[in-house]
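lol ok so funny story. i was supposed to be doing the assay writeup but got distracted and ended up predicting the structure for this chain instead. priorities right. anyway since i did it might as well share w the group, maybe its usefull for someone
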Amino acid sequence: MSDTASPATPPKQRAPAKRRGSVARIVRGALASRRGQVGLALTLLVVGIAFVGPFIPSRSPTEFSGVPYSLPGNGNGVLGTDALGRDVLARLLHGGWSLLLLAAISTVLAVLLGAIAGVVAAYRGRVTEMLIMRTVDIMLAIPQLVFVLLIVSVIGAKTWLVVVAVTLCQAPQVARVMYASAQDICERDFVKAVALWGVPPRKVIMRHIMPSLTTPLAVEGGLRLSFSIILIAGLNFLGFGTQPPNPSWGVMVNENRLGLATSYWGVLAPAIVLAILAVGTNVFADALARVAFGGEDGEEVPVATALELTKA
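and the output, tada:
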């Protein structure tokens, strides 16, 4: 038997417990409430119309089908015709997918850009924090629609430019929320211990700070999506983004507003769809927020576990 005692084997670290504030828990909690169910149902209804509509057999959304401003019936379609005699229902079915796609892309980019800016400002502090947050304050002081119209009117009404403009308009809102949320996380012991261990700031932010901010990030993403939809629809109404004769719900409202007293469905149908979508996304985002911030805070990751994950 050897006289040399073998070194004690350190106890195996347990895997970090799943945070109670995870996105999956928030979504399940929101879907368990009547508010969340109604909001999701309204949102999915409009999303279904937008993405399934182009595949439903119907008349051409860009070709003449009847007398302009005709009421429904007598061969004029279910919702009548618009200012140029095109079928309103066909344009309604084909006019939503581009709007939702642009809004989704803008929201994802705005959330990513705003989250990175807010977290970096909270973690780095000092000069970096001052530069980022003062820039955010300046952008927040400019009205959203004025800011977007300024960019689009100067450079041109291009689809990619609408996405960039809406992204830059929404990102400061996200940055402000994420900055406030990240300040508490950056002061926690496990973040400071990992930083003292010599881990690069980029890894500290991506591995230990950002995963702790999924709750406010998910809620803010839902809110930003609803604002992006309304903002892009408003730009289409003003003639920026989707251009006629391509169908779009915002474009339809602008094209048919002069004949509202004669044939109201050309304006009312897209307006109702946009209203349902805005209400649905806002109600579902509100349900997410109630679940996310109504319960207890998530568990903090132990320092030893954070250091072990960093070395892995």
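The two ends are 35 Å apart (CA to CA). Residues 1-21, 295-312 have pLDDT under 50 and may be disordered.
back to the writeup now i swear
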